[in-house]
Amino acid sequence: MKLLLIDNNDSFTYNLYHLIIRNTGFDTCVLPYDKLPMCDNLEYDAFVISPGPGHPSEYIYYSEIFNTGKPVFGVCLGMQIINLHFAGEVTRLEGCRHGVTLPAEYNKEFIDVAVYNSLYCSLVPDVFEIISKSVNVPMWIKHKEQPIAGVQFHPESFLTKNGGRILTDAFSSIGII
Amino acid sequence: MHSAVLESFEKKDFLNFVRAVSGIWETDALFSGAGYTGENVSVCYILPISSYAVTGRESVSGLRRFINSDDKETYGFLAYDLGLSLKDVHTDKKLMTDPGLFKKYAAYARHCGQRLTIESDCPVILEKALIAYETYSPTPPNMSAADVKCNMTRQDYVGKVKEVIEYIRDGHTYQLNLSMMFEAETYEKPYDIWAHTAEMNPAPFYALFKFNEGHILSTSPERFIKVSDRKVLSQPIKGTLRFKEYYPELEQKLTESVKESAELSMIVDLIRNDISETCEVGSVEVLEHKSVMCVDDLLQMYSSVCGTLKDGKDVLDLLFSAFPGGSVTGCPKKRSMELIDSLEPHSRGVYC
Question: Among candidates A90, A56, A79, which has minimal Cα distance to A151?
């Protein structure tokens, strides 16, 4: 399995890179977002979209990735990019929160996950199943037919307990593992 | 190699040694003030014999050659201006011509415990330095409050903070360090001001460095990066509590604050990222999260982020990839630096 991790000029990308390699051992390349149009997508078996600053509408190079039909996993902004691509909405979150943990329900238990959250997926289209929510904020979405999923929280943060297990669960749900 | 040793040598004596030697040769120094565990070495660098100017990203290999050209210790600085080009942040402001400079010296005086050891290939330098110190009588500089000017009014600054909060709400940054610049005129000698400040307000990381026609005087409680035996240590500081009188429960008050803890956690995640690019997978960990230290009348939280350099990477690869330190930029780093450039009226020069 060869993974491409696309870095939206974020300051957590290499945390995600370490988490992926440590838990899967997959051959993983990091590519700056600006270089995405020059990238040969055929070289990779799956794509991971990093967190990053700003609104997902700023990031216009991703449609090619979705057109490959290969698995795509997004974190934070990455999930918002996925949501927007399928005509969802992303807006400001009242009372934004950064660098804190929240309990999110997953598999009938609550897990403490780290959030860096100014914006959120305010409308998630029907093509997605919402796997986990924290109050009204979708925390984990998965496409019902395509191998695409995203998390709003940060499994790569040192504040998230069992980030490795969450990542491997998410990867196996879309056939990366 | 010739050497001389002075015993029963206190930190105060070291500061006077720096001032005395500065009177005869160009002298740079690092000083660790009293009261900080783990930091007890100070070094006086005497008479530069060679130097290397850093101009940009491409300087890393030249700097590596300069450092490895002999076994003499190298001392220098990198400016925030270099960080702008390392992170591809565009600016229209006038920047420093050489955003970094490193030097090697004819003599080194190292202070540890109560011992000063001076070493040089040239015995005359040792002799002259000792005479300069023995005949030196310090006079305290006149540190009365000069007319200090700031480039932003309180109202300007508060306005900029409000703009930053809007950028946070739009997800462009999660945390941002907004600085202002103060200016004052003085006729005192730079090393007198430096030594006096170091004595009056001890901190673990004091630096004095001659650069072009001026001197850089720097004081900080914060360790950006230390590497020894390929083990990396970074100790970001965030989260502050001011007190009038110290009592132990204050520390708990600070560590239990959700806002102060979040501020530190964000930068810990950023530093983990910044060292991870050059560290082995699985080696990066956070130790002693939310430790507390006391600096003057402030309690400061900090954490230790550790890792091991991966094969093929050295301390310069790490430094150039992690620079500038996240606690003076914000998170995510690149967008925060772009916002800093548009919000601050000044260019930061060496400040970082």
Answer: A79
